[in-house]
Write a structure and sequence with these properties.
Blueprint (H helix, E strand, L loop, with lengths): L17 H4 L1 H5 L5 E2 L11 H13 L11 H13 L8 E4 L2 H12 L5 E4 L6 H8 L3 E4 L9 H11 L4 E5 L11 H13 L3 E5 L20 H5 L1 E5 L13 E4 L3 H13 L7 H13 L1 H23 L2 E2 L2 E2 L2 E3 L6 E5 L1 H8 L9 H12 L1 E2 L1 E2 L10 E5 L15
Parallel strand pairs: 1-13, 3-4, 3-5, 5-6, 6-7
Antiparallel strand pairs: 2-8, 7-8, 9-10, 11-12, 12-15, 14-15
Helix pairs in contact: 3-11, 4-11, 5-6
The protein binds pyridoxal-5'-phosphate.
Amino acid sequence: MDEFNFDEIIDRRNTYSVKYAALKTLFGREDITPLWVADMEFRSPKCVRDILEKYVQSGIYGYDTEPPQMKPVIAQWELQEHGWKVDCDWISFIPGIVRGIGLAVNFFTEPGDKVVVQSPVYHPFTNVPLGNGRKVLRNPVKDGRMDLDHLESLLKAEGPVKMLILCNPHNPGGYIWSRGELESLAEICRRHGVLVISDEIHADLSLWGNRNICFASVSEAAAENSITFGAPSKTFNIPGFASSFSIIPNPELAQPFYKWLSANEFNCPSIFASLGMIAAFTEAKPWRDAAVKYIEGNILHLEEKFSAFRAGGEQLIEPVRPQSSYLVWLDCRNLLRRLAGRDGLKPEDQTLLEDYFVNKVKVGMNTGVMFGPEGLGHMRLNAACPRSLLDFELPEV
Ligand SMILES: Cc1ncc(COP(=O)(O)O)c(C=O)c1O
C-alpha cells in the first residue's frame, strides 16, 4: 500500500463516517459524491497508523498520561512551520477546536456579551456563542480581505465587545491574512478590549508556496491579547481524535483558563489524540507536502472544469483559488441568476443551487448560506479526495 497514492478510492460507507452516514438526512439521497464536511478521503500517514496499531495491539486500554514530549513537539512544529517561538508553558491540550471555542466563550465572556465573527465563516464561530446565549456581530469579509474600517466602526457603535473569533487562515475562501491585516486587527482589538481567539486549524496546509502567519506572533498587542488554537487534525486527516491545543503567551489569560481546564479535566488527551499528534508532527511532514501537491492538482483540475462551464458568454461557476487548505469556495452567482431567472438574488433562491448540485450534478457540498448570509450564491467544495471524484458532469442550464 503506497501511502502517497492519493488516487486510491477508499470505501468509507458503513464506517460511521459522518460524511457518508448523514447523506440521506442532509441531502435527501445517498447516491451522490460527498464533497462536504472537512475531512480528507486520504488514509492518514503511515507513522500515525503504526503507532496507534501498536497501542491497540497491546490489548490493555487503561488510564494513560500525557506523553512528556507532546508540548515540546508542538512548540517545535510552530517554530519550524511558522517561525513562531513558543514556550511550552503557554501550551495546553484541548479536546477539539470547536470545543475549545466553547470553553473560551464560557470562560472569558458572560451571557449577553458580544462576540464578533468575520462572515462568511465556519458556522460554529456563530453557533457556539449563540448557543451559549452570547450575541454575535458580523464584520463581513470584503473581496477576500479583512474590512478593518468596518470593524473599527462596529466596535465603536456596539462596544463593549468581549471577543473576536478569527479564522486564520479563513474558511471558507482559504484566504491567508497579510501581516499588515493581522497587526492592524491586533491593534484595534487591544484598543477596544476585545480578546482575539485565533483558530489556526488550517494553518499547516498552505498552498502554492504560501506560509500562514500566526496571529500571536505579529506584535506584542497580538501576543498579549489572544488565544491561539491549533491542531494536526486537518493537516494529517485525524480530526476524529479531537487532538488540539491552545497557545496563550499572556500568563494573565493562560493561568486562570488553564487552571479551570485542569479542574474539569478538559486538558487531558486520549492516548489516540496525543500519540497521533506526536507521530504526525514529528514524522509526517513528507506526507503533508505530498498531500498539498495533490490538492493543488485537484484545484487546477476544478478550475479547468469550471472555466469550460459557460452560458451566454459568461462563466457560471467561479472558484476562488484557496491560498490554504482544501476547501474551494465556489462563486455560483452567475449560475444561480440563470436558475432563478433574475438578476437580484433572494435568500430563498439558494435552494435552486442546492437542488442543482444534489439532484443534477449528484454531489453533496456545503451550501454557502450556512456560513452567513454573505454566502448567498456560493457553495463550498472539499477537494481533498481522489481526483476521479471530481470528474462529475455539469448539466447545462
Ligand atoms: C476553521 C475550523 N475550525 C475548526 C474546525 C473543526 O475543528 P474540531 O474538529 O477540532 O472541532 C473546522 C472544521 O472544518 C474548521 O474549518
